[in-house]
Amino acid sequence: MSDEGREAIEDVFGDDQLKSVNDILCAIDAREANAGSDVERAFWNASSAAMRKGSPTSLAVSLELMRRARGQSLEWCLGTDNVLIRKFLAGEDFRRGVDAMLIKKTGVPPANGWDAASPRVVEDYFSGTPDSKL
User: Fold this and answer.
1) How far apart are CA 39 and CA 42, in angstroms?
2) Are 59 and 67 in contact (CB under 8 A)?
3) Which residue blocks in the chain are alpha helix, DSSP H?
């Protein structure tokens, strides 16, 4: 990947002004619409499509994790990942995704949809993480 590509990704995914996954998707769509080349347009289109297929809860928790992980220790990162992994595995979206992708092979998103990603649901994922002890 070129330095220009890395900068574009950092501009979108590293921008704290983009508060939600939806904000990021809108920024990606704008980048796609204003792309200077077919390669760039295809990249942003594929990025958008991949995100839209995923669980909204997983995307929102991942975004929050990236923000909270800045400047943290390896111990913090591993402890937080351990808590989040257990919660993802116990969640309904994980079961639906495995069923759609691996068992029925119907693709994603699953036929019965994903759970909604509310701020409270995202925050609940972080209960029991090193942050929750602060």
Assistant:
1) 5
2) no
3) 3-13, 21-33, 38-53, 56-69, 74-90, 92-98, 119-125
- Helices 21-33 and 3-13: crossing angle, nearest 10°? 140
CB atoms within 10 A of CB 6: 10
Bond prior to 109 in cis (omega within 30° of 0): yes
Q: Is the pTM of this model over 0.85?
A: no
Alpha-carbon gap, residue 3 to 129, rounded angstroms: 34
Question: Which among 86, 113, 116 is positioned nearest to 99, based on CA atoms?
Answer: 113
CB atoms within 10 A of CB 76: 15
CA distance 126 to 37: 40
Residue ranges in the chain whose pLDDT is less than 50: 134
What does the alpha-carbon distance between residue 47 and residue 17 come to, in Å, rounded to a whole number? 19
Both tokens of 106, joined, read: 């119907």
The candidate with the shortest Cα–Cα distance to 56, out of 3, 125, 2, 103, is 125
Contact (CB, 8 A) for 129 and 79: yes
